[in-house]
Amino acid sequence: MSTQLTPDAVTVLDRLAIEVPSWAYGNSGTRFKVFTTPGTPRDPYEKIADAAQVHAHTGLAPEVAIHIPWDLVDDYDALSAFAAEQGVGIGTVNSNTFQDDDFKFGGLTHEDAVIRRKAVDHHLACIDIMDATGSRDLKIWLADGSNYPGQTDLRGRQDRLHESLQEIYARLSGDQRLVLEYKFFEPAFYHTDVPDWGTSYAQVTALGDRAMVCLDTGHHAPGTNIEFIVMQLLRLGRLGSFDFNSRFYADDDLIVGAADPFQLFRILFEVIRGGGMDEGTPVAFMLDQCHNIEDKVPGQIRSVLNVQEMTARALLVDHEALRAAQVAGDVLGANAVFMDAFQSDVRPALAEYREARGLPADPMAAYAGSGYRERIVADRVGGTQASWGA
Ligand code: LRH
Ligand code: MN
Ligand code: MN
């Protein structure tokens, strides 16, 4: 079924913005092999230039998230000015306490006050960067955890985490926020200090109103009903942001909507149902992906288009009919209303929608024909290509 977009759906789609991660433009891979791509950025400036291509062709990605120290530069005013020239802004600042030998046994949770100080200071430095870039969100994901039962005192680590987060939170100003991301395992295999939404929720509510939960779609055990978590966090007013990606097995970081488009639809339905796409929503949408074998810029374009397409389909759900069927106990009727929307083809309507906004009807084809790839391949010679982790 090919479908038209309603005026209300168009209003929501006009608001849709998906931050792209700077690290998606660097080389990445598995522990077995990193395949490099010609033209890969060599510094944060080139990553931002590539990210700006995604926005130029889709109108969907006005901000680029950065990761510190991967995107360390001398002058963040200059980086912000460069981003603005490219037509984008700098978004979420991601902290990183997972690649320094000192943090082998944790950072914000560490037994040793000296190491904890170093981890807290890193976050304070990230907030200095946010002050310069005008970023709203500090995103914290911790690798802290342990590999063996008895290795560490689980309870003490939660208490120290709270103290560390309190100091970081106290340094925020204006409309700045702290978002705490959870992940059930990896790199720690026995326990992780922020393994689930409940722990993140408990920690952020102990801080204050400007602390929220970040939900990375790849950070759950197989079979987890992620849309239920989305519903609950929105209901509790603590869903701060998404890291979108898709997974078949673990934290695969594949293109969002590639592995399970229906799951993305169900998640976005709950976002809309819970007000997460209303005007002034507190929910920030972001990609957290790697492009190990495919080209990175088109990989990112495909990703934001997937989110747009599933949002358009989720906006088609006939809420009145759905509610009537639910109230009547019409199990199959309710499910049919839901599936009708999921199975609608919104691609022609979205192509028209883009053209009406001066955007290419087919952003993938437009990028392929733009000559940008050929240009960066020719220009970016010498230097060291950026990689996930540097
Ligand atoms: C951890 C994670 C977190 C990091 C990113 C690179 O698995 O999802 O968001 O910052 O990967
Ligand atoms: Mn993530
Ligand atoms: Mn992850």
TrEMBL record:
It comes from Leucobacter soli. GO terms for biological process: L-lyxose metabolic process; rhamnose catabolic process. InterPro entries: L-rhamnose_isomerase, Rhamnose_iso-rel. GO terms for molecular function: L-rhamnose isomerase activity; metal ion binding; xylose isomerase activity. Keywords: Isomerase, Manganese, Metal-binding. Its EC number is 5.3.1.5. It comes from the Bacteria. The keyword Glycoprotein does not apply. This is Xylose isomerase. It is an enzyme of class 5 (isomerase). Signal peptide: none annotated.
